[in-house]
Amino acid sequence: MTRSDLVEELAARFGQLAHRDAETAVKTILDAISDALVKGHRIEIRGFGSFSVSHRPPRMGRNPRSGESVAIPEKRVPHFKPGKGLREAVDKRTAEMLLEPPAAARRK
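^ that's the sequence the OP posted. Answer follows.
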């Protein structure tokens, strides 16, 4: 699902919400999440998951083409950990999809 798909879904679910308003809502939420992560905060959405910033220490890597060692600097990277509700929903729906016969086979 892309950002524009999310805007379309939001506008479709809430008929009183104009497309432009749905777009603003999605942009505002994503910007708030990004700004909080940049500041080093942790974001927790109950039932969905949590976003945090992980630290990767500096290390030595290897250039695969030349074989020479390359210093890789430390980084801070965003990390998402799904919540229990999301994990269970994905697992349940995936299992259901695997048990359903394909649409073409059902028509026969």
